[in-house]
Amino acid sequence: MNSPTPAGGRSVEARLDEIESRTEIASLVAGFCEGLDRRDPERFGALWYEDAEFLAPGGRGNFYGLEQIRGVQVAIDTSWARTFHLTTNLVIKFENPDRATGRADCLAIAQSAADGRTTYIEATYFDIFERRDGEWKIASRTTERWFISASFDLPPNA
Description:
Helices cover 28% and strands 46% of the residues.
């Protein structure tokens, strides 16, 4: 009896590489949120290639290169006292073994630095991830905002 060729004829090594790559890419998506929410510029900066781009049309603008991208965190830290990014629905598609696209939805809960009021922000991230010299990083991220709520007061912690 002939057994079917597993996974479209790809080798075990190729399939394992894809699994490991998916895990590393998911860690980049989580690291973006962690870097911003924990106010960790080293973590945030380590996610990007030197020539990366972060595009936020209708938002904070477009940022080219690691130096400008690091400025995003400074702007967010200045505007918001606290942020909580909740990212879900991550879809990863490989163009080749060293390049993948990603899409993830995000709900951010942000507390204003000016008045302490809370705002909800819903967006989708469209990413390009690349593996260079054996390391996956973000090559490009475009943020498409769906809405920003009116600010409101949350009751104090119980």
